[in-house]
Amino acid sequence: MKVRTRSSAIAGAACLIAALALTTASAEEPAARGTAAAQVSLKEVATAKNPAAGTAGPGGDVWIAERAGTVRVLGDQGLGEPVLDISGETTTDGERGLLGIAFDKDFAHFYISFTDREGTSTVDEFAVKDGKLQPDTRRTVLTQTQPYANHNGGDLRFGPDGYLYIALGDGGSGGDPHGNGQNLDTLLGKLLRIDPTGGDPYAVPADNPFVDDPKAKDEIWAYGLRNPWKFSFDSGTGDLLIGDVGQSAWEEIDWAPADSKGGENYGWSAMEGNHPFRGGTEPANHVPPIHEYDRNGLGCSVTGGYVYRGEKIPDLKGQYVFSDYCDGTLRSLQIENGQVTGEHDLGVNGGEVVSFVQGGNGELYVLDLGGTVSRIDPA
């Protein structure tokens, strides 16, 4: 089997959708480690055009971003008409498009992360009134030029501290040719932390880890990332988890505790997971992943998810649910004090899993780039 990178996989999604069947079944395989796997199923709740991201919205609704540039709200009858359409402002070439959406904690502002027609990563803000976007209030918060059409990252969300975190890949191509992952003088290959309403166009929190380093960008929270496609905060503990897509051999999940002061170096491109990359030397401050897996199977591109904090599946509570774009199998990790104590195959396949969404009630949804929006339910 030819291993696909995320770039080639997304580009060929239209031809490959039929090859990855969406399975609705209970978990049957035993857990690799730890207690028995939770019994889950997938229930299709909507179809979308290349859903790429989602977030919990006002009133507990789930908002879904379609990669070509539209945002729609999930209701009882599926997805409604677009509440936002920027399809004329972006492109789906390479790994580009509308890649992330987020509300602040008061649902007073809505943020979108997309690549513009020139490929520049862009974060825009809209005011929200009575649960509706106010188009006239739109403004650009942050931009970052991209040297290539892949490894754009693009995920964003608010942390428990109320600040906006933004994930940017290393700029693309392969092997980090510009050395962006370890270079603190660029935003590429980083997780950023900003205060979008504290300044014009934003403010940098005074306790960001590199604000006193003249050789580093103040916005940087963590670095050494290749393509942090999806990240999340545990709504129960505040811990940070990042799914960082590997180069050719190892996929990784990184973790930081809620009381982290930032500054973590996750190793790329000196390291790929726990392994030196192309003869690289492990940085002295390298923070190794809490989980990695190789590409000897069907996996090719990790899709980070969420720690489950819903009520419908008690046996899954507190476990981190994630998948892989090429493999599609839903898996979970039991994590205690930053250490994985159990690994589980949940026995269901979400297709071309490109993202997860955490609803306002803590239940989780799975987005298949081919178009299916599913909810993780009890078996």
From TrEMBL:
Q: Where is the signal peptide?
A: 1-27
Q: Which UniProt keywords apply?
A: Signal
Does the record carry Cell membrane as a key word? no
User: What domain of life does the UniProt record list for this protein's source?
Assistant: Bacteria
Gene3D superfamilies, alphabetized = TolB, C-terminal domain
Q: Where is the Glucose/Sorbosone dehydrogenase domain?
A: 53-367
Q: Which InterPro entries match?
A: 6-blade_b-propeller_TolB-like (IPR011042), Glc/Sorbosone_DH (IPR012938), Quinoprot_gluc/sorb_DH_b-prop (IPR011041)
User: Do you know which Pfam families this protein is assigned to?
Assistant: GSDH
Keyword Nucleus recorded? no
Name the record gives this protein: PQQ-dependent sugar dehydrogenase
